Structures are given as structure tokens and as C-alpha cells.
Amino acid sequence: MRILVTGGTGLLGNNILRQLAADRPDHSLTALVRSQPKPQVFAGLDVSCAIGDLGDEETFSAIRQAVADCDVVIHSAALIHIGWQRMEESMRVNRDGTAMIVEACIEHDKPIVHIGTVDTLALGAREKPASETTRLNENGSATLCSYVASKRAGVDVVKSAVRRGLQALIIHPGFMLGPWDWKPSSGQMIVEVAKTWRPLAPSGGCSLCDARDVAAGTIAAMDAITQPRPTRPTDSPIKSGREYILAGENWTYFELWREIAKRTGARKPIMPAGPGQILIGEIAASMLSKISANEGVFNSAALEMSTQFHWYDSQRAHDELGYRIRDPSISLDDAVDWIQNRFPTQAGR
């Protein structure tokens, strides 16, 4: 099988490529990248690179050809900016880039596994984590920042294409940590907790999962959507357009930060931030954004997101895709070890 993976230099995409290379050496792997990555990103992997910039019409022909040359697409590429700025850029990549991939898949009759995010879904609660069917008005939804708005628009693109005949499954990962986080992406939280003591942790929570487990679940979705349609069981719940949450254990950020601090030797936070501290932080972040041309990670949208409970139930993926999660302590150990070895001066080693 010939597999095209977008976002192969990112945390999830790199783990997908590495699992495919290890478990299915007879498969042909291609990564769609904006430019040739540093050699270590694909070290040890037999991966070809196709050059194309999502959302850039000038490279659409190259993207179309990459899709034509594969049997299935795993679309993992995304621009992640938790803030109010960069909306146009986020839409160009996460919505318009997805549309490019989808149109090429329709043109060449190729199935796709699209990577969304739990943040496009309803929020959960400790007593009732959200599922794929939880209505947005039950517990509210994540702050409609550039990332959330553009990723939600990208999912809408895929759903619309399914109604036109596209064969697609949609994966919504939780908060992923793990090895092969080259930038780092979510591993930046480990860096921040390790290098700077903050007595107050964010007051919300996340559904902590291992990127390796999400990669395995994504590959299971790929197997399901590439099964020839005439041979699929008629009573199977797996239909084109079906969505799957691939999350993990639901933790507060206070719990997570203390576990990270324990592993990095950093001072632990004392307590979660209260409403007063959060309000002051949001006001300060909003003022900084207004006077700065470049919005940093400390902004009012990110602060608001950190007060929400992104807690989810992965039962559907467990039942239908065989999704399993490992002990989160193993995930944290491995993620911290990766970050400390990759970024030793920043992460406390």
C-alpha cells in the first residue's frame, strides 16, 4: 500500500510514519512537506518527500500529484496557534489546505483519514466527559480562537465532501505527549514547567494521551477506510464521515504540571489559579496583544482555553477501532525523557 502522510514532521505525523515503517515495511511511505526537513526528522525511515504548501495554489498541482500517487491519505498537517491573531493564516492552512487535499482525494477516488482535534467538539466535565455526540450547547465549546475556528472549518470541509462521495474518517486527538516531538509542540509545556516556576497552575484540564497510541488508532482508522466497500460488513458502525475521539485520562492541569515538575526536578505549582488571578492574567494578556504586533503564547485566548475542561470519552474508538491507551505515567516519563534529551538546556537536564 502507498500511504501519503501530511504533517509528517509533527508529533503525531512523525509517530504515524515511524509505526508504519516498523510494522509494515512492505508499505510505501510519502510525507508531504513544505520544504526538505532536517535529516534527523526522518532518520532511519524509508520515506519519500513530496514538496507542497497547504493552502498555496501555486503548489496545488504537486499536492494533487502526491495524492494521485498514493492509495490513502492521512492528513495530519495543521497550523497550531492558540490566540486571536493569525486567523487568516490558520484558515489558509487548516481550512483551505484541507480543501486542497480533499478535492484531490475526490478527483482521484482516494480515501482519507483526517486529523481534527477534540477542541472542535463540545467541552466535557469530570462527571460526564464529552463524546462525539455531545451537543455543543451542553457544556459549551472551546474558545473560538484561530486554531479552533480553523480546525472546525477544516472538519466541515471534510464532512461536506463526504456528502459528495468522499471516503473519510475523522480523528479527534486529545492532548498528546510523547517522543518524536521535534519542535516541540505540546512538549513545550514540559519545557515551560521545567524552566520557570509558576506557583499557580491553569485551572482547567485536558485529556492526556500518548502520541504513539493516537498514531496506532489513526492507522486502525486507515485500515477501516481502505477496506473495499463491497467487503465491509453491512452492520458495521464504521461509515464514511464517522468521527472518533482518541483521547486518554482526564487530568487537571494542576495534576499534570505537578507530575511534570516531579520528573524534571522543578518546583511544583502550589494550587490552581483562582478566578481573580485568571481575570488579571486575561486583562494583562489582552493589553500585551494590543501593543504587540506579534501575539505570543501568553494571550487572553490561551488563558481562557486553560480554564476549560477538555475532558473526553474515547469509548467509540475503543469499541470500533481497538484504540487503547497506556499508563499515563509511562507517557510522561517518555515525553520528559525525549524533551530533556532533545532540549537539554531548556528542560532541566
UniProtKB/TrEMBL annotation:
One of its GO terms (cellular component) is cytoplasm. Pfam families: Epimerase. Keywords: Lyase. One of its GO terms (molecular function) is aldehyde dehydrogenase (NAD+) activity. Residues 3-224 form the NAD-dependent epimerase/dehydratase domain. InterPro entries: Epimerase_deHydtase, NAD(P)-bd_dom_sf, NAD(P)-dependent_oxidoreduct. It comes from the Bacteria. SUPFAM superfamilies: NAD(P)-binding Rossmann-fold domains (SSF51735). Its EC number is 4.2.1.46. Gene3D superfamilies: NAD(P)-binding Rossmann-like Domain. PANTHER family: NAD(P)-BINDING DOMAIN-CONTAINING PROTEIN-RELATED, PROTEIN YEEZ. This is dTDP-glucose 4,6-dehydratase. The gene is rmlB.
